[in-house]
Amino acid sequence: MLIDPFQRKISYVRLSVTDRCDFRCTYCMSEDMDFLPKKDVLSLEEMSRLCNTFIDLGVRKLRITGGEPLVRKNIMQLFNSLGKQLGQGLEELTLTTNGSQLGRYAQNLYDSGVRRINVSLDSLEKNKFKKITRIGDLDKVLEGLMIAKKVGLKIKINTVALKGINDDEILNLVNWCGENKFSITFIEVMPMGEIGEKRSNQYMPLNEVKSLIQKKYSITEDPLRTGGPARYVHCHETDQKIGFITPHTHNFCELCNRVRITCTGEMYMCLGQEDKADLKTPLRKSENDQLLKNTIYKAILRKPKGHDFVIERRKNEKFIPRHMNVTGG
Ligand code: SAM
Ligand code: SF4
């Protein structure tokens, strides 16, 4: 079992299978991103072995993320192999996706054992969606979402609240999710990576989002805690769960149960800190998993108490140099 110095049990791994993406969301990446050379990226077999080792060490939930995980070639191989671990230690296999390839993969994902997915969607207006993602086609994403719903995948929409960009769509997004029986979680923008503009220009605190929702809907606090950063409310009119991820207005670290692994096998013990452990070397050095397990145990002892994000309008912004697509959301 993996226990960190603050007695938090690590039972959740998020694995980024690629840093590449078919979108260039303005808050996530700069327009001309450099991606990692393919030779540095772990093979799908190596990723599967790494995940199995974590399952051996007590991890119960795996989330596949990126970049855009569904643009990784032969990605279903990994889902099919990890799906075999469900019920054998692994309790849940999930995915975070931008939805662009869902139409193609939804049924395969369900067949591999995936039951719930997170889909990022920041606007329901075609032109604005294109502006935010720089490339994305809203119709394709919506079509993929409906196929995913039809095959039986439970869907949570993730929306990054962006000041002056999608703040006029908050109620519409809540309403649309309610109609489609999707839950929705709003996220405060985090200062990760240089994006060519000040983060404070995009930052919208979620208490403003909550106030907007309360103008139309009656909501009550939901005590549900998933070990993740979200706090939830129940919306009575739409009978739906609404989550808020608020790294700035509320620190969410005290219950953190997760670590994140990049597609090159670097483990970040905290999304908002730079300390990392190299898992690729022990993975490749020996076919026996003991060296890898020892490396993981040692690194977990360095898991910090919390993140270090700061966005302040008047002070200098402190940001993590890594873009979000490296460690995944
Ligand atoms: N491409 C997939 C997607 O967009 O869902 C998975 C990876 S993406 C990095 C994961 C999540 O991180 C998305 O919900 C995205 O909106 C969020 N995200 C990206 N950059 C962010 C930032 N700087 N602050 C807050 N959330 C961010
Ligand atoms: Fe790609 Fe997801 Fe980042 Fe958007 S948020 S650029 S879809 S990795």
Nearest-angstrom radius of gyration? 19 Å
Shape: globular
| CATH homology superfamily | Aldolase class I
- How many helices? The count is 11
Count of distinct strands: 12
Strand line-up across the major sheet: 7-8-9-6-5-4-3-2-1-10-11-12
Mean pLDDT: 91
What is the CATH first-level class name?
Answer: Alpha Beta
Instruction: Give the H and E element order.
Output: EHEHEHEHHEHEHHEEEEEEHHH
Can you give the helix content as a percent range?
25-40%
The fraction of residues assigned to DSSP E strands is 15-25%
Q: What class, by secondary structure content?
A: alpha/beta
Q: Which small compounds were modeled alongside the protein?
A: S-adenosylmethionine, iron/sulfur cluster
Runs in which pLDDT lies below 50 for 5 or more consecutive residues are none
Largest sheet: 12 strands, mixed
Distance between the termini: 24 Å
CATH architecture: Alpha-Beta Barrel
Q: Enter the CATH topology name.
A: TIM Barrel
Count of structural domains: 1
Structure description:
The protein has a single domain (2-327), classed as Alpha-Beta Barrel (TIM Barrel). Helix content is 31%, strand content 19%. It is built from eleven helices and twelve strands. S-adenosylmethionine binds at residues 21, 27-28, 65-66, 68, 96-98, 120, 158, 160, 187, 189-190, 192, 324-325, 328-329.
